[in-house]
Specification:
This protein is α/β, with parallel strands linked by helices and 364 residues long. It has two domains: 171 residues, Response regulator (Rossmann fold, 3-Layer(aba) Sandwich); 165 residues, 3-Layer(aba) Sandwich (Rossmann fold), CATH 3.40.50.2300. Helix content is 43%, strand content 16%. The protein contains 13 helices and 13 strands. β3, α4 and β4 form a beta-alpha-beta unit. The N terminus is likely disordered. The structure holds beta-D-glucopyranose (BGC). Beta-D-glucopyranose binds next to α2.
């Protein structure tokens, strides 16, 4: 009787999934990641995007040494700035041809590598998405990242907290919203995370986006380029803030936060509350002086270390450890998330205690 009930439920669940046009398959049902393992000395490929922020600059060197320390051969490549997508496509194809056992990808555009990862899988490689997920492909075995939605939530909450602290007498605040590059799968996740916190406050009138630009298509910053954010901020200040005060800006990362601050300063506007992400060396002094309200600490050393731990597990013929799954539009990808840490002037010294290069910047 009991067995029948379970079976009926299972059948109903399958029928429901079929109706919804969904697949219950997950990336690791394909048998990936549980292969025979591979020898020390094998080639590990790492394809990184163009160097749009310090985390990517750091990742290349860290990957090379971590791969070699783990006993493998490293092929670490960056996409160039002028043709990043074709660069990455060619680099990944070449890694497959050279017989890389694992290909770790920080995608410039996670929706444009489908053919390359399909070929990589066919050639016997395991594909790990690093920091940015690959979308709409089933040819992805693992994803390792800091929890991106959480990053957005922390930014949204910090913007609210910062506004209350800086303008204790105001009941409502004028803000503007920025998001990252549309090709980066993280950009909408950061934005949606932040909007989870900010939208109810926009709805109840606590926050006002004076430009009216709240759609991600309007807030996007092509290629994560500082110049693009600065130009957009200039235009918004011109158009909407001639006789209105701007109180705060949601910026998705530190590079763009500094560009936004430059724009606000050159327009002769008073100081604002601006968010950030990455704990870039150039932003930490601004956080200590109060010019940039907050950042997020996502220690690149930890993320690279985790990706190489996964690689070592795979080399032994084991599955890599994961903590959750992330749907990429095609499959549920086994995922390992690390926790992002919010940093303001108040906890910076403490937050960077394990990182002397950053900690010393809090003391100047
Ligand atoms: C990363 C951020 C970074 C941004 C721009 C994102 O995918 O998660 O840390 O600021 O890319 O490079």
């Amino acid at each position: 009787m009991r067995k029948l009930a379970i079976t009926t439920t299972a059948v109903a669940a399958v029928a429901l999934l079929a109706l919804a046009g969904c697949s219950s398959r997950s990336a690791d049902d394909s048998g990936s990641g549980d292969a025979k393992g591979f020898d020390k000395g094998s080639l590990i490929g790492v394809a990184l995007p163009d160097k749009t922020s310090e985390n990517w600059v750091l990742a290349g060197g860290l990957f090379k040494s971590a791969i070699e320390e783990a006993g493998f051969k490293a092929d670490v490549q960056y996409a160039g700035q002028s043709t990043p997508v074709p660069d990455q496509q060619a680099q990944i194809a070449s890694m497959s041809t050279k017989g890389a056992k694992v290909i770790i990808i920080g995608a410039k555009d996670g929706g444009q590598l489908g053919t390359q990862v399909k070929d990589a899988k066919a050639a016997g490689a395991t594909v790990i998405a690093y920091d940015r997920i690959l979308t709409d492909t089933k040819d992805i075995d693992y994803y390792v990242a800091f929890n991106n939605e959480k990053v957005g939530e922390l930014q949204g909450q910090a913007l609210l907290d910062g506004l209350k602290a800086k303008f204790p007498d105001k009941k409502s605040y004028n803000i503007e919203l920025f998001s990252g590059d549309p090709g980066d799968a993280n950009a909408p996740v950061f934005f949606q995370g932040a909007m989870k916190i900010l939208q109810p406050k926009i709805d109840d009138g606590t926050l006002k986006v004076v430009s009216g630009q709240t759609d991600i298509k309007q807030t996007a910053t092509k290629d994560w380029l500082a110049q693009n954010a600065q130009n957009r901020m200039d235009t918004i200040l011109q158009g909407s803030y001639q006789s209105t005060e701007l109180d705060g800006v949601l910026s998705p990362n530190d590079t763009l936060a500094r560009a936004i601050l430059t724009s606000v300063k050159s327009a002769g506007k008073p100081a604002i509350v601006v968010t950030g992400q990455d704990s870039e060396a150039a932003s930490i002094p601004l956080i200590m002086s109060g010019e940039q309200y907050m950042t997020i600490y996502k220690d690149t050393r930890d993320l690279v270390k985790k990706a190489i731990e996964m690689t070592t597990q795979l080399s032994k013929g084991d599955k890599a450890d994961t903590t959750t799954k992330t749907n990429n539009g095609s499959v549920d990808v086994p995922t390992f998330y690390l926790p992002p840490v919010v940093v303001t002037k108040d906890n910076a010294a403490e937050a960077y205690k394990n990182n002397p290069d950053l900690e010393k910047l809090t003391q100047q």
